[in-house]
Specification:
Largest sheet: 7 strands, mixed
Order of helices and strands: HHHHHEHEEHHEEHHEHHEHEEEEEEEE
Strand order of the largest sheet: 6-15-11-7-10-9-8
Number of domains: 2
Helix content: 25-40%
Length: 431
C-alpha cells in the first residue's frame, strides 16, 4: 500500500514538473519565469522527498525478504536532485571541491555536473545539443535554447567572476545589486541611513515617513560575440572553459564600463552623463587656464562638494588628461599634487590627486580634455557606490550564424540594468 501510494505521488509530481517546464518555456516575462521556477523548485523538492521515502521502503523490504535490490533502480530514482532547477542564490559561491565527481559525488545543482560541462562544450564546439536531451529530464528550461541560450556551467561562472576582477576599472568599483526588476525601490532602502533614537522616540524607518524618491530597474540584454574559430580548436575541457570565461569577462566588463558613463537608458542601462537627474549646477565648466590652476580646482570643484561625498569620492578621467594636466599641478608651496603607486605583484597603478583617488578610463568612454568640445564632459567626480549595476550574472550562451561572413559566432548574453542611486554627489566637469 505504501509503495503504491508513493509511486502515485511520484508520478503525479513528475507530471506536474513536466507541465511547469512547458509553462516556463512559454513564459513571456522574467517575472513569470521566476514565479514558475519557484513553484517548480517546490515540486522537485517534494518529488525528491517522495523518492527518498520509496527508497527507504525498498530497503526495508529487502531486509525483510533477505533480498538485495539492484543499485541501478535506486540511482534511477535519484536523478532529480533538489535545487537542480535554478542557479539562484549567490553566483559567486564555489561550485565544488572535486573537479571530476562520480555519479554519487555530484553537486545537487546540475550546472555543476560533468555531464552538463561536457554537453555545453560540445554545444560550443559543434552546435550539437543532443547531450542536453538526457539532462532536460532532470533540469528546467534554463538548459534549453531560449532568448538567452544555454546557461553556462558553474565552472565557467566562477572563472568568469574571477576574471571580472582583472578587467573593468569602473565596474569593479560600483555597487552590485540583485533585486527584482520593474519594482519601485525607495532610495532609502538601497542606500542605508542612520537615525538616533531614545527610549521615548523611534527612528524614521519605524515612523514610516513618506518616501518621495525611488528607482526602478528594467531588463536589458547585453550581448558579447566570440568567433567560432577561437573555440573550435580548443581540445581540453578546462582550457575551453577558462578561455570562454576570459573572453566573456573582457567583452562584458569593457561594455559595462562604457554604459556606466554613457548608457542611453533606451534598451540599455542609464549612464552618468545621460542621467537627467544630475543637476545643471553640478556640471562645472573648465577652460584650459582653469585646469592648469590649482586655485580654480579648489574654488570650482572641491569647495562645493558636500562633506558627505568627500570621503569616498573619486575623479574619473583619461590617462591623457592625467598625464598632460594633473601631473603638472602644484600647490602653493610648489609641491606636486599628484601621487602614483604601483602594486609590485600585479603592476596595477593607483593614482591620486590632492588626496583623492583617480580612476583612469579609455578615451572611448570619456573624452580627453584636449579632444573634448565645448560643453562636453572630460571628467567626473562621484562616489562609485552611488551607481548600481543590477544583475544576477546568469549568463546564457547561444550560437548565431553570421550570414555576411558565412560563419558561426558564439554569443554570451547577460540580463542587467544600471542607474545612479544618488545623484547629489555627482559632479561632471565639462570644457
Amino acid at each position: 500500500m505504501i509503495k503504491e501510494y508513493l509511486k502515485n505521488v511520484i508520478a503525479s509530481k513528475e507530471q506536474r514538473a513536466a507541465e511547469l517546464r512547458k509553462m516556463i518555456k512559454a513564459a513571456e516575462t522574467a517575472d513569470e519565469v521566476r514565479s514558475l521556477g519557484d513553484t517548480l523548485q517546490a515540486v522537485l523538492d517534494e518529488l525528491t522527498e517522495a523518492k527518498k521515502q520509496l527508497d527507504a521502503v525498498d530497503d526495508n523490504d529487502s531486509e525483510d525478504n533477505g533480498e538485495t535490490k539492484p543499485m541501478e533502480d535506486k540511482d534511477e530514482r535519484k536523478q532529480v536532485p533538489a535545487g537542480a532547477e535554478l542557479r539562484g542564490g549567490n553566483p559567486m559561491q564555489s561550485y565544488m571541491q572535486n573537479p571530476h565527481p562520480t555519479a554519487r559525488q555530484r553537486s545537487g545543482n546540475i550546472l555543476d555536473s560533468m555531464e552538463y560541462r561536457n554537453a555545453f562544450a560540445d554545444y560550443v564546439r559543434t552546435g550539437d545539443e543532443s547531450k542536453f536531451a538526457a539532462l532536460e529530464a532532470r533540469a528546467d528550461a534554463t538548459l534549453i535554447s531560449t532568448d538567452v541560450g544555454k546557461i553556462i556551467p558553474n565552472t565557467i561562472m566562477n572563472e568568469f567572476i574571477r576574471e571580472l576582477k582583472v578587467y573593468g576599472n569602473l565596474y569593479n568599483r560600483v555597487r552590485k545589486l540583485n533585486v527584482k526588476g520593474g519594482v519601485e525601490f525607495p532610495i532609502e532602502s538601497l542606500v542605508p541611513t542612520i537615525s538616533w533614537i531614545t527610549e521615548t522616540t523611534v527612528s524614521d524607518t519605524q515612523k514610516a515617513p513618506e518616501i518621495k524618491t525611488s528607482i526602478s530597474f528594467g531588463y536589458h540584454i547585453c550581448e558579447a560575440r566570440i568567433a567560432q574559430s577561437l573555440l573550435s580548436q580548443v581540445v581540453t575541457l578546462d582550457i575551453l572553459e577558462s578561455e570562454i570565461a576570459r573572453l566573456l569577462a573582457e567583452a562584458f566588463v569593457k561594455e559595462f564600463d562604457r554604459i556606466i558613463i554613457n548608457g542611453t537608458g533606451s534598451g540599455q542601462p542609464t549612464g552618468i552623463l545621460t542621467d537627467t537627474r544630475v543637476a545643471t549646477s553640478h556640471k562645472i565648466a573648465f577652460t584650459a587656464a582653469n585646469i592648469a590652476d590649482w586655485t580654480q580646482w579648489r574654488k570650482k570643484l572641491f569647495a562645493v562638494i558636500p562633506l558627505a561625498y568627500r570621503g569616498e569620492g573619486v575623479l574619473i578621467m583619461t590617462p591623457a588628461t592625467w598625464e598632460s594636466y594633473i601631473m603638472t599641478l602644484k600647490d602653493d608651496n610648489n609641491r606636486p599634487l599628484y601621487q602614483e603607486t604601483y602594486d609590485p605583484q600585479n603592476g596595477n597603478l593607483t593614482c591620486r590627486f590632492a588626496g583623492r583617488e583617480v580612476i583612469l578610463v579609455e578615451p572611448d568612454i570619456l573624452k580627453d580634455f584636449d579632444t573634448a568640445t565645448t560643453g562636453e564632459a572630460w571628467a567626473i567626480y562621484m562616489k562609485p557606490t552611488d551607481y548600481a549595476i543590477n544583475s544576477n550574472l546568469q549568463i546564457g550562451f547561444k550560437r548565431w550564424f553570421d550570414d555576411d561572413k558565412n560563419r558561426y559566432v558564439n554569443k554570451g548574453l547577460c540580463i542587467m540594468d544600471g542607474k545612479l542611486l544618488d545623484v547629489n554627489g555627482v559632479y561632471i566637469l565639462t570644457k
